[in-house]
User: Fold this.
Amino acid sequence: GAGVSQTPSNKVTEKGKYVELRCDPISGHTALYWYRQSLGQGPEFLIYFQGTGAADDSGLPNDRFFAVRPEGSVSTLKIQRTERGDSAVYLCASSRRGGPTDTQYFGPGTRLTVL
Amino acid sequence: EDKVVQSPLSLVVHEGDTVTLNCSYEVTNFRSLLWYKQEKKAPTFLFMLTSSGIEKKSGRLSSILDKKELFSILNITATQTGDSAVYLCAVANNNDMRFGAGTRLTVKP
Assistant:
């Protein structure tokens, strides 16, 4: 596609529910990143995929958060037993090869609200 | 601990003014510094800087990196209302990319 897309754009859920957030990276980009952005803050790194594998998941805050990228393209971020503190904008980015000198291009994000 | 600090946190100017946004960092194994513009949700890429002293320029925007003093500046000349946004600075090392909190720029007509 022309850019990174994310669905849904907004998600409202109740405390304790399970949610899935989807990211479609730019076609041909092997690296995919998930970030979380709280109000008034910069994006905070969650997890980085190189192809199908999670190359770095050190940013996932706890074991309620999990992400997959089974075919090396689309990725899904999964949050179990959501808490009010999980409310944030979840941003996805992709880059051609990955690595610290490869530009990351961001999607529009999913705004998650946990009531 | 690695950190990226942006200043000012917010700035209000009038159209035609020139602004300078600051980003200082303390990051182990520095590899690159990036500037993004965030208007609604998606940060859009502006510049990537890897070498000191080399100015990157795109229209009215320019940026430079000082790896000795560990900072970067983003300049916007002849500001327009469409420049109103949050400007994010991010620093990448071998492992991940760390963002500052951003500078919210408001350009009034």
About this structure: The two ends of chain A are 33 Å apart (CA to CA). Chain A is about 0% helix and 50% strand. The interface with chain B takes residues 4, 33, 35, 40-45, 48, 56, 58-59, 89, 91, 100-101, 103-109, 111 of chain A (CB under 8 Å). The longest strand of chain A covers residues 88-95.
